[in-house]
Amino acid sequence: MTNDRPLFLPILLGTPRQGRMSEHVAKFVLSELQKHEEVETELIDVRELNLPTQDAGEQIKDAGFSALMERADGLVIVTPEYNHGYPGMLKHALDSNLKEYVHKAVGLCGVSAGGFGGTRVIQSLLPVMRELGLVTIFWDGNFSNVNQLFDESGALLDQSHVRRTDKFFKELIWMAKVLRYGREQMPAE
To answer: CB burial class (10 A; 0-12, 13-18, 19+) of residue 28?
Structure first.
């Protein structure tokens, strides 16, 4: 890489619902990503974004969220699957930026109460990521049966997710480094 500054890879929790089990997943993902010394990260909760609902797109930009997306070298999205789709507030938040995402890596973590681990929400998000200019990595974070993955305090019960998440992060970090190099050395015209 051309410099030694850490990658900035924030995690976006994509649902404002009360009692959301995906919050446990987002906190687990955050704690695992923080183990990578070459990365800075933070959790962004759509619940805390100041996004009006009387308009959409870049007209409703939240200055803080836009600045984070501009600074980001990539993004991790943690989202539950709602009836084979993604939460409307996630789409609302994502659509508030455009140029901030171009040529940046994104890793998708799907969360479901059932056995498919959010596979369908990830499939639904892929064309959205492409349209926004984000480059999806080929590993997904799949969190099936989320109600049984964590105890009441949010502690992970199935340690196999640690290994899988590490593989996910290695791909995300590699892609984020390559794309940052490209953005810095070969700017798009």
So the answer is: buried
Nearest Cα residue to 142 out of 118, 168, 115, 167:
118
Domains of the chain, residue spans? 7-185
pLDDT grade for 42, boundaries at 50, 70 and 90: very high
Here the tokens at position 143 are: 């969190």
pLDDT in tens, 97-130: 999 999 999 999 999 999 888 999 999 999 999 9
User: How far is residue 31's CA from residue 63's CA, in Å, rounded to a whole number?
Assistant: 26
Fold of 7-185: Rossmann fold (3.40.50)
Locate tokens 């990260």: which residue?
Answer: 41
Q: What is the pLDDT of residue 113?
A: 93
In the predicted structure, residue 2 carries a pLDDT above the cut 60: no
**CA triple 110-136-49, angle to 5 deg:** 60
CB atoms near residue 39 (< 10 Å): 18
Q: Which residue has the tokens 């084979």?
A: 84
Write down how long the chain is: 189
